[in-house]
Write a structure and sequence with these properties.
Layout (H helix, E strand, L loop, with lengths): L3 H12 L7 H9 L25 H24 L22 E2 L11 H25 L9 E2 L3 H8 L17 H22 L5 H6 L1 H30 L6 H16 L44 H9 L26
Parallel strand pairs: 1-2
Helix pairs in contact: 2-4, 3-4, 3-6, 5-9, 6-8, 6-9
């Protein structure tokens, strides 16, 4: 049985994580991941037969890996000022492309002025996102795609499109690395999308993949992403309450503008946030003791979290509502995936 000291030591190691220094610990964590404490076996999806989908479990996991590359780079830069190590971005020997992409850093840097508690939280999220990358790469083995080109400067144009700022670059541009509050808004851009993406991809996993444990592993990653999203949404709401009103804390309104933009980009579901059929829930503050706030993105009728299709996710990360788009936004050269083009 683990002693209390060993559990505390493990928790402290997660929170003191720094880029580069976490590689050995993260590798150890990967070995321990998977259902029932065992490794998730390498993906061995059989080739599709007549009437089967034209994609495999490998394709589904590789699409998830593309999103994890993006999240890991964002959080690592925010926490430490540096991104993934090259050993975590190179393609497997059987990947279609043998080239790893580059990161357009833009204003990405360690977020300044953090309290010790805030720094620990950023460290933990960065550690977990890096470990997601390593876990998926281990599961995919030689089939793991390399990191695509990632553009962390796209926050500026996205904020202009959302109506948060009027400047895409330079003075006055939105910069999620400039303060903790702006970081929360930047995180809000990703986290709800990550949660809904894993939920939406679950039905794509084959029966063989379910038996092999891929669905269980994906559900576990979804849970961690949901914890991250819950922290971000609760922090934005709580800081607005502490400020006294939504008007006194403009970052809440900025997050809601992001939600509205995401709704317009996802052609397959473009209902306005917090309306019937929408997969976006606006952050609101309670105006009385009997009125609830809205910190959970879920269907109000059954309290079940929302899902997004692969296509809807692509529209958001590419920053385009158009059909037939193969690249753009946070992925200037597209994702390394068979699901690389918007289709609806």
């Amino acid at each position: 049985m683990k002693t209390l000291d060993s559990i505390v030591d493990k928790a402290l190691s997660r929170r003191s994580f720094l880029a580069g220094a976490g590689a050995v610990a993260a590798t150890t964590a990967v070995v321990g991941c998977g259902g029932n404490g065992n490794n998730m076996p390498p993906v061995t999806t059989p080739p599709p037969t007549g009437g089967s989908p034209t994609f495999t479990d490998t394709d589904v996991l590789n699409f998830a890996l593309n999103l994890e590359y993006l999240e890991a780079q964002f959080y690592l830069y925010a926490a430490t000022g540096a991104g993934l190590q090259s050993s975590d971005t190179t393609p497997g020997s059987a990947a279609p492309s043998q080239t790893a992409g580059k990161v357009t850093v833009g204003s990405a840097a360690a977020v300044p002025g953090l309290t010790p508690a805030q720094q620990e939280i950023l460290n933990e999220i960065a550690y977990e996102e890096q470990t997601h990358v390593q876990f998926l790469r281990k599961a995919l083995g030689s089939a793991a795609v390399g990191m695509p080109d990632i553009d962390l400067s796209f926050f500026g144009p996205l904020a202009v499109a959302a109506g948060i700022t009027t400047a895409a670059t330079g003075a006055g541009a939105f910069n999620p690395f400039s303060s903790f509050d702006y970081f929360l808004v930047g995180s809000f851009i990703f986290e709800d999308v990550g949660v809904t993406a894993y939920s939406g991809a679950a039905p794509l996993i084959t029966a063989a993949g379910v038996t092999a444990g891929y669905l269980t592993a994906a559900a576990g990653i979804l849970a961690v992403e949901a914890y991250h999203a819950g922290y971000v949404r609760t922090s934005l709401t709580g800081r607005a309450i502490a400020a006294g009103s939504e008007a006194a804390y403009p970052y809440l309104a900025a997050a809601n503008k992001v939600a509205a933009l995401r709704a317009t980009l996802t052609v397959g579901n473009s209902n306005a946030p917090s309306t019937s059929g929408s997969v976006e829930t606006l952050l609101t503050l309670p105006t009385s003791l009997t009125m609830p706030s809205a910190i959970v993105a879920a269907d109000p009728g059954n309290a079940v979290g929302f899902s997004r299709s692969v296509d809807q996710v692509l529209h958001i990360v590419y920053g385009s509502p158009m059909v037939g788009v193969k690249s753009g936004g946070f992925f200037p050269s597209g994702v390394n995936s068979v699901f690389a083009t918007t289709t609806a």
